[in-house]
Recover the amino acids of this structure.
């Protein structure tokens, strides 16, 4: 098979030319032979150009968007190059747009998959995927800010993450979705992303009320350690009105049932925090009035030994 010979020679440009010369059905028929070649040479050390040539040949022989997406997700750690664009351009715009949609639904933090998906969006004009996985990959990609090869579209200029998201054409579409369904593992890490989101919501890129309510509801649904909750609340810098809204039991959008396991855990956190405060009152002190109950996230943030920074 000529494709295998070109792969063995590390001739990436030759592989692309051969793929272009073959009709789709002939390319598809070569996939099994290339798969066998990969299996036979998997234990052999190969030069980078040989590996890239094999990737180009295999991707080019996946002639449906579904097959191409499956291959890209299976071999998602290869280095994207100009050859990747050449191979994708063998297919019509509608084919490439469908590939972008399939990758967007199953995107990972892999730079390869995300970079190709974003390239296809810019290349075809298809809608931005809005799956949670794609949004996470977008944020990680913008934070890493890796340089793109020639002809690979995407990225955003800026010296830091805040500047890049301000300048990013994807931000007006994706940031409100990220705020709408935050997830503490992403947003609740002061020092990485939360400060940037607070700044961008203040500038009108997303709704601050949604950020506050959804993030606090997420924290209350699965109470973190007091130090983590305190750091999140300090970064949010809640106003008195926001604090009252969050403290109202079950008031935050998306709050869980009072009888659900996370809500019970949250109530226990609040109860233990109130008990600890009572224990600090001196025995001969006059009875103090009961303080209003706080929600789990606020109570855990102010528990003994876990005070927020001032």
């Amino acid at each position: 098979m000529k494709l295998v010979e070109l792969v063995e020679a590390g001739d990436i440009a030759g592989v692309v030319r051969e793929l272009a010369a073959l009709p789709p059905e002939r390319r598809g028929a070569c996939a099994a032979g290339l798969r066998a070649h990969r299996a036979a040479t998997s234990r052999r050390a190969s030069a980078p150009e040989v590996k890239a040539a094999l990737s180009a040949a295999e991707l080019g022989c996946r002639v449906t968007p579904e097959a191409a997406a499956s291959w890209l997700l299976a071999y998602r750690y290869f280095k994207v190059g100009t050859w990747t664009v050449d191979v994708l351009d063998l297919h019509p715009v509608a084919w490439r747009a469908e590939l972008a949609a399939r990758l967007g639904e199953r995107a990972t933090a892999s730079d390869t998959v995300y970079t190709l998906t974003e390239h296809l969006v810019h290349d075809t004009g298809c809608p931005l995927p809005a799956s949670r996985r794609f949004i996470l990959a977008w944020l990680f990609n913008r934070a890493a800010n890796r340089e793109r090869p020639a002809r690979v579209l995407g990225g955003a200029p800026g010296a830091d993450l805040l500047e890049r998201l301000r300048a990013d054409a994807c931000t007006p579409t994706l940031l409100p979705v990220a705020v709408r369904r935050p997830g503490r593992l992403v947003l609740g890490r002061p020092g990485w992303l939360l400060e940037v989101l607070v700044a961008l919501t203040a500038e009108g890129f997303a709704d601050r009320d949604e950020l506050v309510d959804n993030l606090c509801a997420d924290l209350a649904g699965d109470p973190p350690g007091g130090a983590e909750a305190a750091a999140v609340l300090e970064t949010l810098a809640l106003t008195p009105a926001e604090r009252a809204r969050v403290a109202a039991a079950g008031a935050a959008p998306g709050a869980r049932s009072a009888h659900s396991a996370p809500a019970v855990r949250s109530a226990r956190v609040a109860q233990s925090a109130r008990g600890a405060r009572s224990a600090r009152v001196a025995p001969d002190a006059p009875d103090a009035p009961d303080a209003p109950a706080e929600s789990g996230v606020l109570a855990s943030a102010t528990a003994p030994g876990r005070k927020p920074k001032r």
